[in-house]
Write a structure and sequence with these properties.
The protein is an alpha/beta fold and 191 residues long. It has helices spanning 13-27, 47-58, 110-118, 177-189; strands spanning 34-38, 64-67, 73-76, 98-103, 124-128, 136-142, 148-158, 172-173. It contains four helices and eight strands; from the N terminus they run H-E-H-E-E-E-H-E-E-E-E-H. Helix 2 (47-58) packs parallel to helix 3 (110-118).
């Protein structure tokens, strides 16, 4: 399942999350062996609709954190005010499936946040190339002349507390895109 970048306006965030969940709903079946979450080429934008969209596969609870320079943490979960509510949330036939996450050098920012949210999740492996290395959060500061200056204010961490702020290295390094997919499929087919 391909997860595309999302840079739309907040009012469209729910629609983006529902589009992803509808893809999951259509693809799911009782005989499914596992899922491929393809983040290759995902340049980021807004992480919240992407996380809400993949929630049936990803699971609930704390999915990751932002950690500021003083060590304060802000958890990522569906209780966050930015997390869009899906009207009819989908539940998988088989809970806690095997998941292969695919990344490349173009996977950046909020795309990296989705990859990080899968880190530390049971039955999950990542394949491909290291991500871009923008696994941080930015905040806008208004200046007196009306412009806005965006600064990095925190780094991303996975559900285990492992901090990033750099490239997310895959479990299985594979530069060739076709071989990356083949290795992911082979792992999903393992008992």
């Amino acid at each position: 399942m391909k997860i595309s970048a999302y840079s739309g306006i907040d009012s469209d965030a729910q629609g983006h999350a529902e589009t992803i969940q509808n893809q999951i709903r259509r693809a799911d079946s009782p005989n499914l062996r596992g899922w491929i979450v393809d983040l290759r080429g995902n340049t980021g934008g807004n992480m919240w609709p992407m996380l809400a969209g993949v929630e049936p596969i990803l699971g609930e609870g704390i999915l990751g954190y932002f950690i500021d320079p003083e060590g304060n943490t802000s958890p990522w979960n569906k209780n966050t005010i930015f997390y869009p509510k899906v009207t009819f949330p989908y539940t998988l036939y088989k809970p806690n499936p095997k998941v292969a996450v695919l990344t490349d050098r173009v996977t950046a920012s909020s795309g990296e946040a989705v990859a990080i949210a899968f880190r530390g999740r049971p039955n999950t492996r990542s394949f491909g190339k290291p991500t871009c290395g923008l696994s941080t959060a930015n905040r806008g500061f208004s200046l007196t002349n009306g412009t806005v200056l965006f600064l990095t204010v925190s780094t991303m961490a996975d559900r285990t507390g492992t901090e990033y702020g750099k490239s997310v290295e895959p479990d299985v390094l594979e530069a060739n895109q076709q071989l990356c997919l083949e290795k992911a499929l082979a792992w999903l087919r393992e008992p």
